[in-house]
């Protein structure tokens, strides 16, 4: 973890030139949040201000500011009787609640997208299906996460409902955080279901697109639940 954060420190100094309008605390927040969401910093990890500051090459003040914001956003927590902050370990209830909301919103998006989707967007989805197959073969978790985000974002954009898009935007980082732990094991089934969603959109069949999307999202939630049950059963922290 610390080796990765040290390399993130180099990125952080480069970002300072590109994002001069941001405070250093905001840039540290982005680095830590991305590392948590993408599984570089695992749930339960102890975030010590001095160690994080050393690895990122910054003072403790921006790290403290970033950690406070991460606590507010639910990625990090303070534990009674222990010093410092710890990466939050999402409960099964949290995951299921988020994916339930996602299933309702994205199934409706798929229904709307089936009416509105353009040939350009259909071509983009078809191209992503090919990239997904290649990423599955390579077992490339980061690429699979990126491709998954792009696929779902195209469907949301095609739905052309700004209210639903904003609501899903609030959930997106948390969805990615929960999904990273099963992205490789879930990949083959996930992209088969992406193909079914694409075919329903191509046929402009809103009802079928909605059913396929609902099944897809709920299957991902079930896979994450099964994974958490296995981890808990092995005696590891949730």
Explain this structure to me?
The protein has helices at residues 2-18, 24-37, 49-56, 60-72, 92-116, 119-138, 141-159, 162-179, 183-202, 206-233; strands spanning 46-47, 76-77, 85-87. Mean pLDDT is 90; it is low at 13-18. With 238 residues, the protein is mainly α. The longest helix is centred in the C-terminal third of the chain and has 28 residues, at 206-233. It has a three-stranded antiparallel sheet. It starts with a helix and ends in a 5-residue tail after the last helix. Helix 6 (119-138) packs antiparallel against helix 7 (141-159) and helix 7 (141-159) runs antiparallel to helix 8 (162-179).
List keywords for this structure.
single chain, 238 residues, mainly alpha, 3-stranded antiparallel sheet, elongated
Q: What is the secondary structure topology, with strand pairs?
A:
Blueprint (H helix, E strand, L loop, with lengths): L1 H17 L5 H14 L8 E2 L1 H8 L3 H13 L3 E2 L7 E3 L4 H25 L2 H20 L2 H19 L2 H18 L3 H20 L3 H28 L5
Helix pairs in contact: 1-2, 1-3, 2-4, 3-4, 5-7, 5-8, 5-9, 5-10, 6-7, 6-9, 7-8, 7-9, 9-10
Concise account of the structure shown:
This protein is mainly α and 238 residues long. It has helices spanning 2-18, 24-37, 49-56, 60-72, 92-116, 119-138, 141-159, 162-179, 183-202, 206-233, and strands at residues 46-47, 76-77, 85-87.
Alpha-beta classification: mainly alpha
Which residue ranges are poorly predicted, with pLDDT under 50 across at least 5 consecutive positions?
13-18
Gap from first CA to last CA:
19 Å
Q: What is the strand tally?
A: 3
